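ok trying this again, last paste got cut off
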Amino acid sequence: MSFALDILTLGTAWAHVLLAPYTKVEESFNLHATHDILFYGVSPPALPNYDHFTFSGAVPRSFLGSLALAYISTPVIHLATHFELLSSKFDTQVLIRLVLATLNALPLCLLRRAVGRRFGRPTGLLFALLTSTQFHLPFWMGRTLPNMFALVFVNLATYFLINRSPNSPRPSSCQTQTALALLIFATATLRAELAPFLGFVTLQSLFNGTLRLRRAIVAGLLSIGSYTALTIGVDTYFWAAPTPLWPELASLRFNIYEGKSADWGVSPAHAYISTHLPKLLLGAFPLALFGLLIDSRVRSLSIPSLALIAAMSAIGHKEWRFVVYAIPVLNIAAARGAHWMMSRRKGSFFGRILFLAASGLILANCLATAILTRTSMANYPGGTALAQFNALLAPRANVHVHISNLAAQTGASLFLQTHAPPYPAFIDASSANNWTYDKTEDLSARDLAAMPGLTHAITEAPLGRGWTVVDVVKGFERWALQRDVKGLVEREGIEGLLGVLKMVEGEKLWILERNGA
């Protein structure tokens, strides 16, 4: 059973990568940094080719996550190449995302074992079921957000903090120090918003006696100093910064001190509780509230996560990814609540109602995840368009295509620039077509017409005279509820029920060829 639950956790994350292999703009920095490290190398002469010098973003981000992912993926890429499993650069994108999904799944498997040991096997089983049937966490575990790199360390730290017998009141000193070291690393190098989480884990450890104040100060300063030196050394090099660069400090200054995060929108203080957590947890949200209510061990475990949510709620700009680190712990609370509900006597009316309610919430997870997954599969028109473009014009040489903003933001990554250098070792560069892919932003139809040598464009609307439409790419628009349920069932039988909710797609991108090209 334990191995089967591990396969479920890993398989769910892998399935989301394979069903939705393209990426969006928020993933692009780490994805393209990994691309550049893999294909250009890290020597000084290679750095001018890196994508981040052209598309740098609002604030610099750390290369540590991409560097680790590239080097961990390298032997996997060699193995896949040996067995002829890779045929294009895009296959490499899928592979590195599978590696990242695995890196995130393994701590969850360890965490599930620790939950089983601490709270009982049924709770561990329910933790795995709730996690795997949710949408956001499994979907994003294989996506190159900086938060997903940090999540690996947060979940490992949580594992060390709870991996003990049911009657043990506190983790060992060694477990506490290991957890704190992991959290300090993640906070200093990957995501500074973890500071409240780290702070409350430290306070709890001091309060319960697993950490002494003197040792906390000395070890904390040494850890912060060494990890900060690491990120400054690595990122100053990769960003070619004239002065020492600490990306997370630059992010704090930009977003908090200068208040620039508000430029991306401001939400009310209750948004995490009223919107983001219900969206992340789905059916586990009410179960988590109930689990917090009935079990003091769960409440103690959840204090750092709740502190993180409270701290992030005080900042105007809110996104689900800022509190995603709390989801595994809240899933533990949900599993605890679900187990209590499902273990009541089934002979009583109350017991049957509780069992059905808990089961229904898990089933609701599955239904919501199925709908959201299908939505996401149709929500990357840029990736679809560039993949279709590469396939349609594969035999041609001297192709010069411009990729519009929407296409670049919805999947048209560097890994899809199939016919342009750099080429991986498994592709014969001498037989390549050497196309030109252009991502210059905010060009008008007149600008495109004036571009010398441009043969094709992927645009957000037809350009009219001078251009021929090669193909049109559709994407998700909305879900439509079919009202004639009885008619559907009469025409198609029980399968007609699956068509009650129908996805409506709209035209998103046009693949165009310049006349005479």
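PB: full thing came through this time. The chain has two domains: 2-377, 381-514.
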